[in-house]
Amino acid sequence: MSNLTVKSQFKVIEFTIECFPDISLNQINLFIIFLIIFLNIVLGNITVFICITLDPHLHTPMYTFLGTLSIVDILSTSNIFPKLLSMLLTAQKTITFNNCMAQLYFFIYFTCTEFFLLAVMAYDRYVAICHPLHYTLFMSMRHCTLFIVGSWTAAALEPVLHTVFIANLSFCSSLQVDHFFCDISPLLKLSCNDTIHVEIATYVLGAIVGLSAFTLTLLSYVFIINTILHIKSAEGRRKAFFTCASHLTSVVIFYGTSLSLHVRPTSTYAPVQDKLFSLLYITLIPILNPFIYTMKNKQFKKAFSRLSRVL
After folding, report:
1. What is the pLDDT of residues 104-117, one digit of tens each?
2. pTM (2 decimals)?
3. 3-class SS letters over 44-95
4. Class of domain 13-310
5. What is the pLDDT of residues 271-291, one digit of tens each?
6. Domain ranges for the chain
7. What crossing angle do the helices spanning 141-167 and 61-78 adopt, rounded to 10°?
């Protein structure tokens, strides 16, 4: 069929994921590199989560949010890396339509969850620095649980329309996804439909999630910075800034990589550039978060030492 048109609603098609044909390294070398990255992400974040879970001294809202963030980082990379590693190892680079849509859904889901969690963590730092005497009232473990459940629940709704819209497109001629996983832009490039409504919905929904999370984060830091500047002693300012420095670093990296990946029209999609940004986005935050939050954290180091002695 020279002009092949495949209706996605039949859900019997397979996509071919091109992965990294432009990279000169052979597939086995790429497999080893990505396996090392994936194992580092999983081991680093699972260590943080286990340490927070088992040590009673870390059963506070701040560390509970951090433990949840570690789980999100593990799940988000596990949504992509196992399939990528399998394709690199076996050279079987096909993915069924249903699995592709599932991968797309969970990619957006975990991204939105991280947006919300980072915003909630910013609010937590705001309360700790600006209202320390009321911290236990505003950030009790009950409030902490509600914030976490709310983040997971709200994030689950946002990807539904994206996935439904793309699942009902028609795909023409080529079913080769020029990417290393099922993302919105490369899938839209394959469609023979007019995808402008999908792009508009993507930007609108993304703006609702991104701007709401960003606004809460920004306002929190405006009040935090204002409070720090009014602290008279240099030592007091240093301690106050230290309590939010790790989170602020994580926010800057996360928003920087997210904006570079998502804030541009599909027409500007450049496979090589987008694969690089996607790789940074998917790996940089999950691999750095355990170090950002724990490297200079004396309380976590003590908890890790106690856990190491027990084990």
Report:
1. 999 999 999 999 99
2. 0.89
3. HHHHHHHHHHHCHHHCCHHHHHHHHHHHHHHHHHHCCHHHHHHHHHHCCCEE
4. mainly alpha
5. 777 888 888 889 988 998 888
6. 13-310
7. 20
